[in-house]
Amino acid sequence: MAVFLKERNDERQIFPFPENGECVEETPPCLSWLTQSTPCAVTVEIADEHGNLVWQGKTEKNYIVPDRVLPAGNYRWNVTTEDGEQRGEQTFTVSREAIPFLRPNAREVFDRVPNERPRHLFSKQDLEALRARKTELETLRRTVAVAMNDPLPERPMFHLDENALPYREYFGRFRDFCDRDLVALSLAYVLLEDEAAGHRGKELFLALCDWSPNGPCSLNGPWGDEVGLSMARCLPTVFDLLYPLLNEKERAWAAQTVFSYAQQCDIRLRNLDYCRNPGDSHAGRIPAYLGEAALVLKGTGVCPDDLLLDWLERALEIYGGIFPHYGTPDGGWAEGPFYASSYTKWYLPFFSAVRRFSGADFLCRPFYRHVTRFFLHFADPDHENHPFGDGYWCHSEDPEWPGFFAQNPMRVYAARFGPEAARAMYRRCEESIDLYSLHLLDVFLPDGPVYEEKERGNNALAVFPQAGFVSLHTDFGHSDDLNLLARASRFGSDSHRYPDQGSFALFWNGIALLSPSGYFGRKCGSRHHREWANSTRAHNALLIDGEGQYPFSRLSAGKILSAKQTEDGGTIVLDLSGAYPGGARWQRTLSLHKNELDIFDHVESDLPCSVSFPLHMLARPQISGNDLLLERLGVLMRIHPEAGNLGGLETQDTFAVDLNASEPEAYHVSMPQQFHALWHTQEKKCVHDLHVTVTIYPKTEGEKA
User: Fold this and answer.
1) Whole-angstrom Cα distance, residue 74 to residue 71?
2) Which member of 313, 329, 341, 584 has the lowest number of beta carbons within 10 Å of its beta carbon?
3) Are 295 and 355 contacting, i.e. CB atoms less than 8 angstroms apart?
4) What is the pLDDT of residues 247-305, one digit of tens each?
5) Which of 256, 251, 120 is nearest to 190 (CA)?
6) What is the pLDDT of residues 463-515, one digit of tens each?
7) Phi and psi of 466, rounded to 5°?
């Protein structure tokens, strides 16, 4: 059987890197390739453009990082098995501006971990600077006041008692106790020297340690992993911060609990074969928890140092290698801004500790250097929602998932990388926080080196081709700004992404005029979520013969062909061919001008087909002939089919699958109403050319018109 795969055959697999001919922005780059799951010894060779061998290495993994910096220039590389099978020669270029980054090894990090406590988030030497963060400390005090009045949590019973609080509702409340209360109390003990908070934190910490890691709180049990993830995320830090308050027996007990969750992280990564299959949404954070456990358990005697070194080496290899899967070198996050805001935080405490102990800064890698630009365009707190992907409708204060849309996505990144617009967004977010919610572990990290990023244009156009997102503004940062967001991504419709390739959203000064539709409902995976939100008809993308794109599939993919800026807008061209089971080929051109969006759709199919053109919005539209009119928050919008024989306009104010379908009445949810419009072509053809115009104007001007 051949060792090398020519293309991905599973949604979770890596994307080989670099792509043939790609220009990379770090040196040495992590080189990765597709293989069958059975480990196989291979030799990797890199030659310069003249064919001279410049580096060689051997591995049984599906990736390798050269142990020296490669100078700027053009390279060829190949992978060969012991039996002589070759992956095939490919090329890449190291940019003249590539950041040199030699990865640390576990021994050099581990040996520099001090015996003193705290050692993880910060050290004693960092306290003076951290105590100067007055805004953050005041928010911490308010959060501690809430935590002091919270009762101790009750054990989960959803695994034994059908009348107990169900899993979904339980883990939502558990995050308050663990991620918020426990961490806030522990931070207050050290930073504020609050003895009462420390003792309350100890009481809560030991109560959680008393719960078996192998029951419903397990990371790998059959009931769901959210409780276990919170335990694995928070307990290492809390153990380190509260260490002086624990007696010898309590320390041994707590260390064993931290060790048990680290073991579960290790098992999870091994069972997934993570480095071949990093497209598991929850698993990307787990290497950080494994590494953090290794750092805080050093010196406790709970296990041999060799095991801690193995865990630490695994975490360092992953974060220095194939990670992040969903975060691409262009700074985009393929699962959309809701998940980006949280998933770009879980590993920050580990990164900070590694930098302090070794000097190696993972944050200098390309994704982290560029992610502030993604947040500026796709996670603006003043935008009504944040397409694309699950949770697009949420804000940090929403009761559905409090704090999961991070209260301050820019924290750490803005200070390190800028630009000034990102720093302004960071300050605005931080000053608006009343209580910390889910994310406290990145609030009090010591400052790191600042890498000033070059300004990329004037922010009117931001393109993330590898993640598959485009943002286009007519007047970025000013009044009367029309903002177009679109998706066309190599990442399909699996995990937390929808079959919405070619979909777009339109905002006027943050007001959502055209938007995706659908929610989780009571929970991720509800009937509404599976059958409506995870369908093309819920998004602003075409239906072919009434059918949408491949659901839950890597095959539902697209590509950004071009994105160009003009004086008052710009043009985006997307290729969505191949996303439809019937084989239809679709190219969408979005042309944005001041107060106007032109949508051009070219569809070809081997057999005559019909095309449906759906749009979704957050206010009730009116039908005027074959036009759609919308008035919302002082803005008027007219949608007019110009060409393509679109007709039969119909609107709906309900979902095809109810928000609470199949859910117990006691757990029904209420979400803002959404509205849906649909046009159809009036005949079946092999070629369709559609043109729809969306005109936006302030209400006063609209009334004159």
Assistant:
1) 9
2) 313
3) no
4) 999 999 999 999 999 999 999 999 999 999 999 999 999 999 999 999 999 999 999 99
5) 120
6) 999 999 999 999 988 888 999 999 999 999 999 999 999 999 999 999 999 99
7) -75, -40
Query: 418: number of CA atoms within 13 Å, CB side?
Result: 10
Residue 616, classed as helix, strand or coil, is strand
The string over 242-252, giving b where at least 16 C-beta atoms fall within 10 Å of a residue's C-beta and e elsewhere, is bbebbeeebbe
* Greatest C-alpha distance within the chain: 79
Q: 3-state DSSP call for residue 532?
A: helix
- Which of helix, strand or coil describes residue 265? helix
Spatial CB neighbours of 299, under 8 Å, sequence gap ≥ 6? 115
Q: What's the whole-model pTM score?
A: 0.96
Q: How far is CA 383 from CA 196, 337, 377, 413, in A?
A: 40, 12, 10, 20
If one counts every other C-beta atom within 10 angstroms of the C-beta of residue 355, the result is 20
Give the tokens for residue 529. 């979520």
**Beta strands 22-27; 675-681: pairing state:** unpaired
CA–CA dist 195, 277 (Å, integer) = 45
Cα–Cα nearest to 480, from 359, 635, 607, 679: 635
Which domains can be identified in the chain, with CATH numbers? 22-100 (2.60.40.1220), 112-323 (1.50.10.100), 327-456 (no CATH), 461-704 (2.70.98.70)
